[in-house]
Amino acid sequence: MKTAMILAAGRGSRLKPLTNNIPKALCLVHGIPLIEYHVNNLAKSGFTHIVINHAYLGGKIRQHLGCGDRFGVDIRYSPEPTGGLETGGGIVNALPLLGTEPFVTVNADIYTDFDFSRLHVAENSLANFVLVKKPAFRPHSDFGLSKDNRLSNDNKQYTYTGIACYRPALFEKLKPGRFSVAPLLSQLAEDQSASAEVFHGKWIDIGSPERLKQANA
């Protein structure tokens, strides 16, 4: 795969007052914006085309990353209305920029050393998801994993990382609008039509000031 989408349209309300003046994707970890880590990691993993959606203060993301030439990639932007379109609506809105081949998505508000070059979609799957063992700060788990590495709604003990790869056909029949991708993921798990893998490396969901401090530590 050569195409990836960074989901960066979140408001970052739980990170106020830090996000009063910057979008969540530009919060700093060791002096570098979160989204820049993703761009660099994707470039190192062989991705050449990156799509970024944005809403709240999206112009600051554009100003910081530009067209991507200093990272060795081509960056294109998918602007969204005030309030954003959430994850599902954001992907559907960006489909014209994502092409016809499988693509990777990654949430901008995570900090990870995941190797994106390892991701793929098996021929018998519509998507592949990256999971981690449920961290202590999460009140419940998202998914289980079957013996043949299929995403499952049974025996839930894993958290979805915000990293996945999809076949475009999964979204092509969905209507544009504002909606979360979560119900679609649950349906894929119910139908056993998506694969999954467990990641054991560095991963922090930057959903609070405390976890931002944890990443910086």
Give the CA-based shape. Answer: globular
Going by CATH, the homologous superfamily would be Spore Coat Polysaccharide Biosynthesis Protein SpsA, Chain A
CATH C-level category: Alpha Beta
Can you name the CATH architecture?
Alpha-Beta Complex
The succession of helices and strands, N to C, reads EEEHEHEHEEEEEEHHEEH
Percentage of residues in strands: 25-35%
Do you know the CATH topology? Spore Coat Polysaccharide Biosynthesis Protein SpsA, Chain A
Instruction: Point out poorly predicted stretches.
Output: none
Helix count, per DSSP?
6
- The percent range for helix content is 10-25%
Distance between the termini: 33 Å
Assign the structural class, choosing from mainly alpha, mainly beta, alpha/beta, alpha+beta, or little secondary structure.
Answer: alpha/beta
Tally of separate domains: 1
Rg of Cα set? 16 Å
Biggest sheet: strand arrangement: 5-4-1-6-11-8-12
Number of strands: 13
Mean pLDDT: 95
Structural description of this entry:
The chain has 217 residues and is an alpha/beta fold. The chain has a single domain, classed as Spore Coat Polysaccharide Biosynthesis Protein SpsA, Chain A. 25% of the residues lie in helices and 26% in strands. The protein is built from six helices and 13 strands. It has a seven-stranded mixed β-sheet, sandwiched between helices. The chain is globular. The mean pLDDT is 95.
List the helices and strands and how they pair.
Elements: E1 3-7, E2 28-29, E3 32-33, H1 34-44, E4 49-54, H2 58-65, E5 74-79, H3 86-98, E6 103-107, E7 110-112, E8 127-133, E9 144-145, E10 151-152, E11 158-166, H4 169-172, H5 182-191, E12 194-198, E13 203-205, H6 209-216
